[in-house]
Design goal:
coiled coil, 10 strands, alpha+beta, Porin, two-stranded parallel sheet
């Protein structure tokens, strides 16, 4: 996307600064996150109810009275949550900086449509703003659900621990943790603006008109604005601070008060009370502005989270290519294996995947170069991280090692050979603009001794992450 600022004599000119693609990008990003977060929230609540139904059935077998109390308490909690969700409004939004910036920029463009290079912009602007506000509502809903989960952890924790249902309690704690981590993951995704969005906001931020709009209308401004304070009016700010005690006045007052007998003990007691109130206020502010750094996540004791669980299926797939050459004499390779694979990250230390390879022939020597189809292969593999950049690698392959000129020749199953591989791989820092990571693999084919003709047992491959 190209944002147009040609012919603009100054950032405050009425010439269009922002392309219509900015709206399309926001619409797509916000809509996708809104849908994903809504599905994650509903899925969590369904799983939680299913788990509680299983607990209820177990309690019925041992103590019907406690089972009835358990059911009534849960129904009351869910009813309260449902009422809270229905009462959600645009007021009191969870503050997310990147979302606040996007919302303010769209409202600003609504007030200043001449800055948007789009003829029929009203419909697209309204659509993008609706998506962003819908996403904000989903984050508000998520914060309400997180509070609900914390309360449920406390009530259910005491009940399940006393009833000996520790397995169910641990499962509940894991679900709560992953949901909190997932919400924070979505906030991080939102924070990572695309190039098109960064450029548009950068151009808008150069205008004094947009800066003034942000100071008056952004959510951050509403959170920290003092009564009667106009951010663009220094006189109004000074007037709002009039009458407040200066630091010097406070220090003099403390020295006078603490000189009395027993005043120090009283001062310490008051300080503890004040600290307690400050901590309470900080927690309330934290809930209001929305913690995005993960500090609000409760880590279950002894639990090692799988960071891949908060990622989408697409984000857990990694693509790789590798090369391996063979030569008969001299330095010229007679054949080269080119492999492509896709691996699914089970967790941070384990990857499983499948792939395929193609063996290309180069001829006998540099004077006689002839490209031929020398074989094809199908692969499966498992990688397990040992320590640092070292991985234990295992795999099973089927290889057609004969020259072929058409696909029909590959149907001869007797010509295919098995390979069982095990070895080590090491990731090294040789990144480039094309490849994300580089690795070298040393593998032993323990099935090579059964092949006729026998294939080489030791394989050396160089791989690159795409």
């Amino acid at each position: 996307m190209q944002l147009h600022a040609q012919g603009v004599s100054s950032p405050d000119s009425s010439t269009a600064l922002v392309s219509g693609k900015y709206l399309s990008s926001i619409n797509k990003t916000a809509g996708k996150l809104e849908s994903s977060l809504d599905k994650k929230t509903d899925k969590l609540l369904r799983k939680l109810q299913q788990q509680e139904n299983r607990i209820y059935k177990k309690l019925q077998k041992t103590d019907s009275l406690k089972a009835k109390q358990f059911l009534e308490q849960n129904q009351a909690q869910y009813k309260k949550l449902e009422q809270g969700i229905q009462k959600l409004t645009k007021k009191g939004n969870t503050y997310i900086p990147s979302l606040d910036t996007l919302t303010s920029s769209l409202k600003f463009l609504q007030d200043n449509p001449e800055l948007l290079k789009l003829k029929d912009n009203a419909g697209q602007l309204t659509g993008a703003l609706d998506k962003v506000q819908g996403l904000q509502q989903q984050f508000n809903k998520a914060e309400l659900v997180k509070k609900f989960l914390k309360e449920k952890k406390q009530t259910l924790g005491n009940q399940l621990q006393n009833l000996g249902l520790l397995k169910e309690l641990k499962q509940l704690n894991k679900q709560v943790y992953y949901y909190q981590a997932q919400v924070n993951e979505y906030k991080e995704i939102l924070k990572d603006h695309k190039k098109i969005e960064r450029k548009a906001i950068e151009l808008l931020s150069q205008t004094k008109l947009f800066k003034d709009f942000m100071q008056k209308n952004s959510q951050l401004a509403s959170l920290f604005r003092l009564p009667g304070n106009n951010p663009t009016d220094p006189a109004a700010l000074n007037a709002s601070l009039a009458g407040l005690q200066t630091r010097a006045q406070v220090n003099n007052l403390l020295q006078q008060q603490l000189s009395a007998p027993g005043a120090m003990d009283q001062f310490r007691s008051n300080m503890q009370d004040a600290q307690s109130q400050i901590n309470s206020l900080r927690n309330r502010i934290g809930n209001q502005v929305g913690n995005t750094g993960g500090s609000d996540i409760d880590m279950p004791e002894g639990f090692k989270p799988n960071s891949q669980k908060t990622k989408t299926f697409k984000d857990r797939i990694e693509y790789n290519t590798d090369f391996q050459s063979q030569r008969s004499n001299g330095y010229f390779p007679t054949t080269s294996d080119i492999g492509l694979s896709a691996g699914y990250k089970i967790n941070d230390k384990s990857v499983i995947g499948i792939g395929a390879s193609y063996k290309i022939g180069w001829g006998q020597n540099i004077q006689n170069i002839r490209i031929t189809h020398q074989g094809i292969g199908l692969r499966s593999f498992v990688d397990w991280k040992i320590k640092g950049g070292f991985w234990l690698t295992g795999g099973y392959e089927q290889n057609y090692r004969n020259e072929f000129n058409n696909i029909a020749a590959l149907k001869d199953l007797s010509a295919w050979q098995q390979s069982g591989l095990i070895g080590l791989s090491k990731q090294i820092n040789l990144k480039s603009k094309i490849f994300k990571k580089t690795s070298v693999k040393l593998l032993w084919d323990f099935l090579s001794y059964q092949q006729v003709p026998r294939t080489q047992p030791i394989l050396f491959r160089v791989g690159y992450g795409l």
